[in-house]
Amino acid sequence: MSSHRKCTFTKRPILSDEKGSVQLYLAELTQEGRASGKVKILDICESIRATGKIDELLYEMESN
């Protein structure tokens, strides 16, 4: 069975047997800091997590 997910950062497919990959759900916030009901889904592959740079990549993504 193949996966249809792609890593948000590398754009490479995430295989179904890749145990180190994660999927993050980030809530969009209003100006008041409340959840707006919108969610951003990030698929992060094992190789990005292994580099230890995920925090930096998330920060850069949200800063732009």
From TrEMBL:
Q: Where is it found, in Gene Ontology cellular component terms?
A: ribonucleoprotein complex; ribosome
- GO-annotated molecular function: isomerase activity; structural constituent of ribosome
Q: Which Pfam families match?
A: Ribosomal_S21e (PF01249)
Key word Ribonucleoprotein present in the record? yes
Entry-linked InterPro entries: Ribosomal_eS21, Ribosomal_eS21_sf
Q: List the keywords (alphabetical).
A: Isomerase, Ribonucleoprotein, Ribosomal protein
Position of the signal peptide = none
Q: Does the keyword Ribosomal protein apply?
A: yes
Q: Tell me the GO BP annotations in alphabetical order.
A: translation
Specify the superkingdom. Answer: Eukaryota
Q: Which family does it belong to?
A: Belongs to the eukaryotic ribosomal protein eS21 family.
Q: What is this protein called?
A: Triose phosphate isomerase
The organism's taxonomy opens as: Eukaryota, Fungi, Fungi incertae sedis, Microsporidia, Enterocytozoonidae
